[in-house]
Design a protein that fits this description.
Radius of gyration: 25 Å
Shape: elongated
Structural class: alpha+beta
Number of strands: 14
Order of helices and strands: EHHHHHHHEEEEEEEEEEEEE
Low-confidence stretches: 195-202
Distance between the termini: 36 Å
Number of helices: 7
Oligomer: single chain
Mean pLDDT: 86
């Protein structure tokens, strides 16, 4: 069963609302809240991000998201929340009242605690759909410092006084100097501080490089160049664009770090 991140965060938020309504959260309740994610083999980092997202939601937002889910997801959520109530071996009246309130607000199916536990025993694994990387791949990232690594070893570090700007933008009309068409991938350029405002001036530290997405997750996007042709004084010549790559790290829907890869030299430059 596939949810998006906000949906799962909403269900977690409401699970903790039920667990906390009696003034304490038992360890058994924490285990019951976490278990469906453990059984579904959620990566720890992804689950921690969901917990953070749940903490950012208020009760009204969480109930609104749950009320908009389809019937299959609502059935899971109802059973999941009911199982949390029974997890500590005591059916607390306040927790049941909160469960009933959420059920009314979100138009959830009616079920008993026993039915909830039976349903959870047969529910399929849950998963979180990957977020599209597209919204993040049109940005200017202002790096306050950068570190250079060669063969995995730091050789220059904490260049705090040397600011850089990493620019990633969709390839709309091709890229000047390369024999490529628009609509294919992205263009990556790196400037010294202040250079991003002068696209046709100086301050360019790495000239524009065409790249494509080769993998992505909710918190990391990897771009890599590809073989193409570049203009030279002698006409078009082969250009090994695959020697360049960029890894983009995303936290809380914002780019927080970029690493430039020069694969042929085994050099990485980390911008934070």
């Amino acid at each position: 069963m596939v949810f998006n991140e906000r949906e799962l965060a909403a269900i977690l938020r409401l699970a903790y609302a039920i667990a906390m309504v009696d003034g304490k959260v038992e360890q058994e309740e924490v285990s019951a809240i976490n278990d469906p994610f453990v059984y579904s083999r959620f990566p720890g980092r992804e689950f921690n991000r969901l917990l953070d997202a749940a903490g950012d939601q208020d009760f009204a937002e969480a109930t609104t998201l749950l009320s908009e889910m389809d019937d299959t997801k609502k059935k899971f959520a109802t059973a999941y929340l009911g199982t949390v109530i029974a997890s500590d071996g005591h059916i607390d009246d306040k927790e049941v009242a909160m469960w009933n309130l959420i059920s009314i607000i979100c138009n959830l199916p009616k079920m008993t605690i026993e039915e909830a536990m039976d349903i959870m025993d047969t529910m399929p694994n849950i998963s979180c759909e990957e977020q599209s990387p597209e919204p993040y791949l049109n940005f200017v990232f202002n790096s306050r410092e950068h570190t250079r690594y060669e063969n995995g070893v730091q050789v220059i570090g904490d260049q705090g006084k040397v600011k850089r700007v990493v620019r990633v933008e969709p390839n709309v009309e091709g890229c000047n100097g390369y024999n490529i068409k628009g609509g294919d991938g992205y263009i990556v350029t790196i400037y010294s501080e202040g250079g991003a405002g002068s696209l046709f001036g100086g301050n360019v530290q790495m000239s524009p490089k065409p790249m494509r997405i080769i993998s992505h997750s909710n918190d990391k996007i990897i771009l890599r160049g590809y073989p193409t042709e570049a203009m030279s004084p002698f006409g078009w010549v082969d250009f090994p664009g695959q020697d360049y790559g960029l890894t983009i790290y995303v936290r809380e829907a914002r780019v927080c770090k970029c690493i430039l890869h020069m694969h042929d030299r085994n050099v990485d430059i980390e911008y934070i």
